[in-house]
Design brief:
Strand content: 5-15%
Distance between the termini: 47 Å
Bound molecules: guanosine-5'-triphosphate, magnesium ion
Number of strands: 8
Radius of gyration: 21 Å
Largest sheet: 8 strands, mixed
C-alpha cells in the first residue's frame, strides 16, 4: 500500500508509514529537514552550479547600471540583449520588457536595484506558475511507475540513477528497468547505477523489444512490493521505427499491466542545448503527454535562463534539476531558492 506515500516527487517528501493520518501536519517540519538537510551547503552548491548563468545574466544586468542613473530606451535595449543571451526566449523576453516598460512609465522603477528586484519577482512568478505537486498522480496501490524519456545524451540514465538514490534514501524499494535496448552499453550503464545505489535492475539483451522488457519488468515488480519503478528508454532507435511510436507503445503496455501507469512521464532536457530543449519538450509532449521535466547539466551552462523559458512556454512542472554528475547532484526544483541562487549577490 502506498497510502502513506505522501510526497510530491518534485519535493521528494516521503513520510514514514507510522505517521499515518498526522502526516499532513508533520509535512512542513519534514520538508525543512528534507532537501535542506545539508542546509546552507546545498544552497552554496546550487549557487555554484548557476554561477555561469549568473555571470552572463545577473552580473550583466548589474553592469547595465554602472554610471547610469536612468532607465531609458537604450538601457532597455541592452537588457533585451542580455535576456535573449541567457536563453530566456523571445516571447518571455518581450513579456518581461513590456512589463518593465509599463513600470518605468508609472515611475515605479527608480533605479537599477528596483529593476532587478522587479525582474526577479516576475521570473519567480513564471517559475511558481509551473510548479505543481505530483502526489495526485500517485497510485492507490502498486508501484509508482516513472517512464523517463529524452533525446540521446541528455542525461536520462544518470538522472534515473540519481533518482533511485533519492527514493532509496527516502526508504522506498526501487526497481530500475533497462528499456533502452538500443545498445548494450545502455543497460550496462544502468546496472552500474543499480549497484552503486543498491537496487535491482531488470534488463534483457541488446536489441530486445523495449515494450517486452517493460512488460516482463512490471510482471516482476508487481508481486514483489516495489514502491517505485524507474524505466530508462532509448534516445534514438536503430530500426526505422519512429521513436515516438515506440514510446507510445511502451506507455500502452504499462497501462495494460498496471492500469494508470506510467504515473509520471518524466522528460529529461539538457540545459546546455538552450532553445533546442524547447522544441524537444514540444515534440515529446505532443506524442506522450509529458507530466514532469528534469533539466540536467545546469552546472555546465550559461544558458540557465532556459528554466524560465520552459516555465513560461509550457504548463509542465520542472521536478528536478541536475547540477553535476554525482549521485547527490539531482535536486528538487524549488522556484524560490532557484531564483535566490540565480540572483545571489557576491563575486561569482
Ligand atoms: N555536468 C553534468 N553532467 C551531467 C548531468 N546529468 C548527466 N550528465 C552527464 O551527461 C552524460 C550523458 O548522460 P547519460 O545519462 O548517459 O545520458 P542518456 O540520456 O542516458 O544518454 P543515451 O542513453 O545515450 O541517450 C554523462 O556523462 C553524464 O555524467 C548534470 O546534471 N550535470
Ligand atoms: Mg542512457
Amino acid at each position: 500500500m502506498l497510502s502513506w506515500f505522501k510526497k510530491k516527487i518534485g519535493g521528494a517528501q516521503v513520510l514514514p508509514p507510522e505517521q499515518g493520518a498526522g502526516a499532513e501536519a508533520a509535512a512542513p517540519a519534514a520538508e525543512a529537514a528534507g532537501q535542506q538537510e545539508d542546509g546552507g551547503n546545498f544552497f552554496l552548491r546550487l549557487k555554484d552550479g548557476l554561477s555561469r548563468t549568473r555571470k552572463t545574466f545577473v552580473r550583466q544586468i548589474d553592469a547595465l547600471f554602472l554610471g547610469k542613473k536612468q532607465i531609458d530606451a537604450a538601457l532597455l535595449e541592452d537588457l533585451e540583449e542580455i535576456l535573449i543571451m541567457a536563453d530566456i526566449g523571445a516571447n518571455t523576453t518581450q513579456e518581461l520588457l513590456d512589463k518593465t516598460r509599463e513600470q518605468v512609465k508609472r515611475n515605479e522603477l527608480a533605479d537599477g536595484q528596483a529593476l532587478k528586484k522587479a525582474l526577479k519577482e516576475m521570473i519567480l512568478g513564471y517559475l511558481r506558475n509551473a510548479d505543481r505537486p505530483a502526489d495526485l498522480a500517485l497510485p492507490a496501490q502498486g508501484p509508482f511507475v516513472v517512464m523517463v524519456l529524452g533525446v540521446n545524451g541528455v542525461g536520462k540514465t544518470t538522472t534515473i540513477g540519481k533518482l533511485a538514490h533519492k527514493f532509496t534514501q527516502a526508504g522506498q524499494k526501487v526497481l530500475l528497468v533497462a528499456a533502452d535496448t538500443f545498445r548494450a552499453a545502455a543497460s550496462e550503464q544502468l546496472q552500474i547505477w543499480g549497484k552503486r545505489v543498491g537496487v535491482e535492475v531488470v534488463a534483457q539483451q541488446a536489441g530486445a523489444d523495449p515494450s517486452s522488457v517493460v512488460f516482463d519488468a512490471l510482471d516482476y515488480a508487481k508481486p514483489r512490493n516495489f514502491d517505485v519503478v524507474l524505466v530508462d528508454t532509448a534516445g534514438r532507435l536503430h530500426t526505422k521505427v519512429n521513436l515516438m511510436e515506440e514510446l507510445k507503445k511502451i506507455k500502452r503496455v504499462m497501462d495494460k499491466k498496471i492500469p494508470g501507469a506510467p504515473h509520471e512521464i518524466l522528460l529529461v532536457l539538457d540545459a546546455t542545448t538552450g532553445q533546442n530543449a524547447i522544441s524537444q519538450a514540444r515534440l515529446f509532449n505532443e506524442a506522450v503527454d509529458v507530466t514532469g521535466l528534469a533539466l540536467t547539466k545546469l552546472d555546465g551552462t550559461a544558458k540557465g535562463g532556459i528554466v524560465i523559458n520552459i516555465c513560461h512556454e509550457f504548463n509542465i512542472p520542472i521536478r528536478f534539476i541536475g547540477i553535476g554528475e554525482q549521485m547527490e547532484d539531482l535536486r528538487d526544483f524549488e522556484p524560490g531558492e532557484f531564483v535566490e541562487a540565480l540572483f545571489a549577490e557576491g563575486e561569482a
